[in-house]
Amino acid sequence: MTTVRQRKVGKSTEVAEDQPSEEKNVKSGGKILSGRKLWNILSITVGGIVAISLGLLTSVYVATLHENDLWFSNIKEVEREISFRTECGLYYSYYKQMIQAASIQQGLHGLVYDNKTESVRTINILERMNVYQEVFLSILYRILPIQQYLEPVYFYIYTLFGLQAVYVIALYVTSWLLSGTWLSGLLAACWYITNRVDTTRVEFTIPLRENWALPFFAVQIAAITYLLRTHLQPVQERMTLMAVFVSTFLFSLTWQFNQFMMLIQALALFILDCFDMLPTAKVMWLYIIQISGLLLVCVLQFFNSMILGSLLLSFNASVLITRTIQKNLKKGTLLNRLGKLILHVLLVMWLTFLINKLIKKILHLESDEHIFKFLKAKFGFGATRDFDANLYLCEEAFGLLPLNTFSRLSDTLLFYVYIFVLFLVTVAAVIVAFRNLRTDYNTFFFFCLISDSNQVQFLEETEECTVTLKPDAAYNFIHTVLFGCLAFSTMRMKYLWTSHMCVFASFGLCSTEVWKLILKCIHLYTPQRTHVIKYSIPIITLLYISYKFWPGIMDELSELREFYDPDTVELMNWIKSNTPNTAVFAGSMQLLAGVKLCTGRTLTNHPHYEDKNLRERTKQIYQIYAKRSPEDVYRILRSFGTDYVILEDSICYERRHSRGCRLRDLLDIANGHIMDGLGENEPDLKPSLYPRFCEEIKKNLPSYTIHFTRVFQNKTFHVYKLAKHK
């Protein structure tokens, strides 16, 4: 940047004459700087107070919804535990186990040498599952003097609701950093709250891993956004890198799918680095942080094989290796750079799959093969009869994002604003990427050909037409695009996208650069006009959201319901009262998680599906809903040490899914049998020699009663005790 300074002169009288005016300028300049500094401090203080207030209000909001929906404070303990459905109950059971242990050491020993989660097997829970948060929370509860004032379950759920405050504050800060005004953060937080149905499900799936992990992921994104700012001091950069590392580590520690989310993040960094839109040194540091965080988690999880064989580690290692080989990637002519770029991408992909294949072959890893089978079938790379893949394909949560999601997001104007901002930033990103690929020599040569009289005009026109995209905005742009693609393909992952939508849309609406670009395009740009629009439109949007959705939020908070599931409560009470503590139960994954939590009995299978042996075991246990002989089913169940089997009418006579996606249909297809009901079957499927086990056992035929005795029954569940033949 060129500056103008006063010319030095030899006459002391002239200097003396100018000194008073210079002193006045210095004083007035000092006052302006002091005023700006005070204004910045005031703005940061007010913005910080608003952020914390909104975070706390969100926590209170979701906690109130949870209480109003279940009347949680009034129901029995067994009902509270049943409300933690499916895998949520399994994770909470380890917190309960640690609380009830005689000591912290015995509690940890019980987790490391667990023989109740999978019968006839001893497994390490800390290796297999991401439950360190339950361990930490249980230890904290034991050492803090709060037992007399707060029940363990409330300490647990209040912690999760408290993390929602962290989540909202992180989103708020990210938007503030991108736009330069805390008004943007306020708008992002309001959008997050008013679109709660699509941004979080914490109030009814409290212990779910993503509810622990996503707040830390949001903190990490905020830290990366700050890191990518220009002109950071070395101390600021080091502190920010530390914040990125800590948040990355906590995110990785609390969710088993962390590696897939961070792989998408690594791809975003890779794309931006290829087009020279981010500082290479910072990108390399982020790759190293991802690797370090994941390896530290791997150590804490007793060298979990799924982490070692993750694509993320292979990809990041490949990028770092390739960057050392191709040092001059960003030099040369346009065609030269494009050639280098294509070679770079191909080399990284080849190395990634080579390294990953070698690791999996050496360590004999098969933990995540079901995910790749699911992805292969989902994206049309051939039909599959694989039971595990079809189990995912038939679940709504793993299907495409429903179209009604966009209508809900549009009601708050979020989707409209998001598309508007996304279009503008996409155009800017394409222009900047292409400009970065061109050689600077051509621009310099063209500039030299212009006559001196036209150079000033050329510079003015260039400045008028120049499109820029800051590194932090570029990262958040690619982040939202890639996670948007993930959400479109898999509905369960929409929560990673919709929360960032709030950030990205609010940033665009409050961004000086965005409005400056728009006004320049229509030749209406002035700094004052940009300033007015930048603040007025977000305020109008906030007023609209408040007017339209505040009454609905108040109605929602005043609506009172109560937990009601008498059949499951009756089943759990019967198990606790009428079966020995060492009894082994078989049944559906979802129900057995509740059995473990409510009764402490041993299970044959459970919903944490990231283990090949467990997946094979579950398929075998589920033969109770297939067309198999009573002898086969008895032999299978006894091989896993089963004492009791629970049959559910809701699965045996399932109507929730269409034909071909019911659990019994998936089992029939996997077993090569024709499905029940009207409809087509694949030509090689054959009729089974036996009727469906879960239906036929209720007839009390001698071939069944010799192996199974019904000991409990209500409108939903049937429990059979297995005979112990010599």
TrEMBL record:
Keywords on record: Glycosyltransferase, Membrane, Transferase, Transmembrane, Transmembrane helix
Segments of skewed composition (Basic residues): 1-10
Any one GO cellular component localisation term in the record: nuclear inner membrane
Origin: domain of life: Eukaryota
Membrane topology: Multi-pass membrane protein
CDD domains in the cross-refs: Dpy19L3
Segments of this protein annotated with the region Disordered: 1-23
Main location class: membrane
Keyword set includes Transmembrane: yes
Transmembrane spans: 38-63, 176-194, 214-232, 239-257, 263-281, 293-321, 341-359, 413-434, 473-491
Keyword field contains Disulfide bond: no
Alphabetized Pfam families for the sequence: Dpy19
GO molecular function term, any single one: mannosyltransferase activity
Localization: Membrane
Family membership noted in the UniProt record: Belongs to the dpy-19 family.
Name of the protein: D19L3 mannosyltransferase
Organism the protein comes from: Caloenas nicobarica
Gene encoding the protein: Dpy19l3
